[in-house]
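pinging the channel bc i need a second pair of eyes. not urgent but kinda urgent?? the chain im working w is below, pasted from the shared doc
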Amino acid sequence: MSISLYFDEIKTIIDKYTATDFILGSILHFDIRPGNQGYLKGEITFVDQSSLFFREFLDFYKKINKVMYSYHYQNKMNQMIFRYDNAKHKPPLNSNDHKHLSDNTVIEVIETDVQCVINEIFTIQNWIYNKLL
C-alpha cells in the first residue's frame, strides 16, 4: 500500500465515524514527502467536547512503517484520558510502543492505529456505532 492509499484509507475511516452523531467535527492534514514518506496530523472533536489529537510519520518501503505516532485523547477540560505513542521512554521500556493513562501509569502495548483508538473511545463513552459494522 502506498502513502497515498494509506491516507485515503484514513480519510475513509474518519469520514465513517464523522457520519455518526458522536463526532462534531474533524480536521485532517496529509503531507506526502519525498523519499516515500508521509506525515498525517488530525483532530477529532466529539459530542462531549473531548478531543483526539493524532499524528503519524510514515515511511514506505514495501509496506507502511510508522516511524512515529501519537494518539492523544483528552476531555473537554484538556486533561489527558490516555495517549498512545512510540517515543522513547524514560525509564526505558522493553518496547517503544506504550500507552499513558490518566493516573500517570505507562503500560507497554502493541502498535495501534487511529481506528482502534476511536473504537476504544466509543467503548469508554458507551457510544453505539453499529452503523459502521
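so Residues 73 and 121 are 8 Å apart (CA to CA). and The chain has a mean pLDDT of 91. — does that match what u expected or am i reading it wrong
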